[in-house]
Specification:
heterodimer; A: 654 residues; alpha+beta; six-stranded antiparallel sheet; four-stranded antiparallel sheet; 21 helices; 12% strand; B: 150 residues; mainly alpha; two-stranded antiparallel sheet; 6 helices; 2 strands; flat
Chain lengths: 654, 150
């Protein structure tokens, strides 16, 4: 029953989707209101059917319907309910359905939003959304259906891979997938603007909102993925420059550029063509990222193995890029007008520079990611670029991004006199130089390892942070002077009255914390690999860990082997730390990390393997990792603040 | 696959999607009604104006560009050279500003300006002799008078 309901819903959704695209085309061509109305019902019908299919899959998962191959592969009777639900996106077919669901819901929201205020764009937005939806429906109907039935229903399912049994499984994949899906909306709005030649305030407002939403989901999704990798994958880090991680990073970088250049378009009416190009690039990179995940062309922890989806994705990408570029060329006279760029030293040129640097970073990451394919094509050997390549190329570029992020807000629009720039820049510069000197002295006196790049970067971060705080102080003081509010009130009002601006600054602070954590942990981590017998101990920095022995435990569907280590922090004994290994058939064993977190560093212990009572451990101390996650939280809060809609009262007054 | 479910869904979908095609007339009046009850088209322009003012206060926007930018904003945010120092920020001030703009009575002024040339005497471009609108030639020097647009 579930299988037939789900499959029927998917097939009919595809039919309805195809019909709706054609009906929109006819409606636009013949200016027929009836065709447009019918097409709109087709869009709604598609979305309703996708929701129905999703409900069927959830129902199948929750009722343990093991006649469905998908349910039997990703859940079992012993799986806790929360992980049963996460089975929805654990597999290839299910995550396609989840994507289609999110895209459908976003499509519904954007159409309802626009049909009130800006009905002209609805057909074009809908067609772009439907075309993307059609790709995923095609894949589910013809390649991998989540509703494929087994010839004989299984008695119990296989369950989740123990590596996926982490709280991260519940929030990382859906956030990132939602980010990928939402990128379609700014793209659809861009397509609509290209066709209707209309980019007014309302369009810009919607564009900004949806770009910000997809940026938020992708950013938070990536950070959650880092956190998950850090606590679960036991490779002693959080980012491995894996092809699929890069696939999530690239659209995010492009969206970051787009957000900022949209600001310039809103203020000055320039950068139209550039923004269109960025909106297209972010969308196609997101689809390309999915293509990498679903195909077998690059190896990655995320791939789903042989799927047969490559031709569909390649066809969609090729056709999409050609069509989009075609429309952009057709509209080039509208898009590429000379702007009022006056001088080299102005905020808009600063933004443009930051945009270019972000795009450069994206290109470098893209090049490194597809390098195995290129090298295979030209030399016959597949050469994969490891983390060193990315750290050496994309790393410095991203530090430059952070620097520009600090300087741009200090520049005035149109032109900045050097004296004025100095007045804005002097205090942050003093702070930055002071911190740099302190760090150099620490390095000279061997308190800290000397790493020039790290010291320069920390100085840059201090500059940016100081610039932001200076901006806040100035704003607060200006408000205090002009409105007579006390400083605290002035500060709160300042933030809540220009939410977009101060939300942005909060995000910038989050990015600095993030960058600081990443930099500190990649330059100053210390690691020891040891094999210990019970009673042996290992010392790293201020910690001494004494190995007590192994305990083994059998649970319903798995065996758990736990190592006990007592930690001595300096001189006092300070509790114990217990990394463990889970053995679950048919997945084999998974190592579970034990982490002790403090504000300044994490103690990170992995039980690598054991023989008899002897066990091999990797013990590491990673500085400032906690600040990466704190930065992520600020990023989330700042974006939500920036997205918060204007109050009704303010709207009425306008 | 259970054919019953498929057929049921298919029929429902066809009816839903097909209905607008065979509807006697798309209900346009309802649509208009819905649109007219919506709040007036609100743009971000006043937010934009505030941002510009803020940049100006902090010294990040040169004086000579301040007014330009308000005019340059898409949708003509400021639409004109209303003294920006008077830009209303509190509700009372907004009320006053609206009252002032209403007080200008722009429509009457425009119609008065339009009516003036018709009522006023017309002059000969050559000798300056006064005449009426109906004249094609000057009564004094005989110069052909330009055709009045109104």
């Amino acid at each position: 029953m579930i299988a037939s309901l789900g499959s029927a819903a998917l097939i009919l959704a595809l039919v309805s989707c195809g019909y709706s695209i054609i009906a929109y085309g006819i409606g636009i061509g013949k200016r027929s209101e009836r065709a447009l109305m019918s097409a709109r019902n087709g869009l709604f019908g598609t979305i309703i059917l996708v929701c129905l299919a999703s409900a069927a899959l959830l129902w199948g998962l929750l009722s343990h319907d093991f006649s469905l191959e998908y349910v039997a592969s990703y859940s079992s009777l012993a799986t806790p309910t929360l992980y049963v639900l996460s089975g929805f996106w654990a597999g290839n077919a299910g995550s396609l359905l989840f994507w289609a669901l999110v895209l459908g819901i976003c499509g519904l929201v954007i159409v309802l939003q626009q049909c009130k205020r800006n009905p002209g764009v609805v057909p074009y937005v809908s067609m772009a959304v439907l075309a993307t939806e059609a790709l995923f429906l095609l894949l589910m109907v013809f390649v991998q259906s989540p509703f494929k039935t087994l010839p004989v229903a299984a008695a119990d399912g296989t369950g989740l891979n123990p590596l996926l049994e982490n709280i991260g499984m519940i929030y990382h994949p859906p956030t990132l997938l939602a980010g990928y899906a939402v990128v379609t909306i700014p793209f659809a709005l861009a397509v609509a603007a290209l066709f209707t030649r209309k980019m007014d305030d309302f369009w810009l407002g919607s564009m900004r909102k949806w770009t910000l939403i997809s940026w938020l989901f992708l950013g938070v999704g990536n950070i959650l993925g880092m956190q998950w990798a850090y606590v679960e994958l036991s490779f002693n880090g959080y980012w491995a420059w894996d092809a699929v991680e890069n696939a999530g990073l690239m659209p995010w970088l492009v969206l970051t550029a787009l957000l900022h250049s949209l600001m310039i378009q809103r203020r000055l009416g320039i950068f139209k063509g550039w923004n269109m190009a960025l909106a297209g690039a972010s969308f196609f990179l997101a689809v390309f990222g999915t293509f990498l995940t679903r195909s077998n062309i690059l190896s990655s922890v995320h791939t789903f193995g042989e799927t047969g989806m490559e031709p569909y994705f390649l066809f969609f990408l090729t056709l999409g890029v050609i069509l989009y570029t075609g429309i952009m060329i057709m509209r080039s006279s509208d898009l590429f007008s000379k702007g009022p760029a006056e001088t080299l030293l102005s905020r808009e040129t600063g933004f443009a520079a930051n945009n270019l640097v972000l795009v450069a970073a994206t290109l470098v990451v893209l090049l490194g990611t597809v390098f195995p394919l290129i090298s295979n094509l030209f030399t016959g050997n597949t050469i994969t670029q490891g983390p060193e390549f990315f750290n050496k190329t994309a790393g410095p570029i991203l530090i430059l991004v952070v620097l520009l992020m600090g300087i741009c807000p200090l520049l005035a629009w149109f032109k900045t006199s050097p004296g004025k720039l100095w007045r804005n820049l002097s205090i942050p510069l003093y702070v930055s130089v002071a911190l740099g000197l302190v760090l150099v002295l620490l390095a000279v006196f061997k308190v800290m390892t000397a790493r020039p790049l790290a010291i320069i970067s920390f100085a840059v971060f201090a500059l940016v942070a100081a610039a932001i705080f200076q901006e806040w102080t100035r704003g607060t003081r200006a408000r205090h002077r002009s409105r007579g509010e006390n400083y605290f009130r002035a500060f709160v009002n300042l933030i809540f009255n220009s939410r977009a601006r101060y939300g942005g600054y909060i995000v910038h602070i989050g990015v600095i914390l993030l960058a600081m954590g990443i930099l500190a942990s990649s330059f100053y981590s210390e690691t020891k690999e040891v094999t210990l017998d019970p009673g042996d101990s290992v010392t790293l920095k201020e910690y001494t860990l004494m190995y007590e022995g192994l305990t083994s435990e059998h649970r319903v569907d798995r065996d758990v082997v736990t190592a006990g280590l007592t930690v001595t922090d300096g001189v006092r004994p300070d509790g114990s730390i217990n990394p463990y290994i889970v053995i679950k058939e048919p997945f084999g064993s998974a190592r579970k990390v034990a982490i002790r977190t403090a504000l300044d560093h994490d103690l990170y212990v992995v039980l690598e393997r054991y023989q008899g009572n002897a066990a091999a451990f990797t013990v590491s101390v990673h500085p400032l990792v906690l600040w990466i996650w704190i930065g992520g939280i600020l990023l989330l809060l700042g974006t939500v603040l920036a997205l918060w809609p204007a109050r009704k009262k303010e709207e009425g007054a306008r | 696959m259970n054919a019953g479910v498929f057929v049921l869904l298919f029929v429902l979908l066809t009816v839903y999607v097909g209905y607008p095609l065979v509807q006697p007339a798309p209900n346009k009046r309802n649509l208009k009604k819905v649109r007219s009850t919506l709040p007036p088209f609100s743009t971000d322009s006043s937010a934009l104006r505030e941002e510009n003012e803020f940049d100006y206060e902090l010294g990040n926007l040169p004086e000579e560009h301040r007014l330009d930018m308000i005019g340059a904003a898409p949708g003509g945010a400021g639409s004109g050279k209303i003294a920006v120092s008077e830009v209303a920020t509190t509700d009372d001030a907004i009320e006053r500003e609206v009252a002032r703009l209403r007080g200008l009575d722009i429509e009457n002024q425009v119609s008065r300006l339009r009516a003036r040339p018709a009522a006023g005497p017309s002059k000969c471009p050559n000798c300056g002799e006064a005449g009426t609108d109906a004249d094609k030639f000057c009564g004094q020097c005989g110069t052909q008078l330009p055709r009045k647009s109104r």
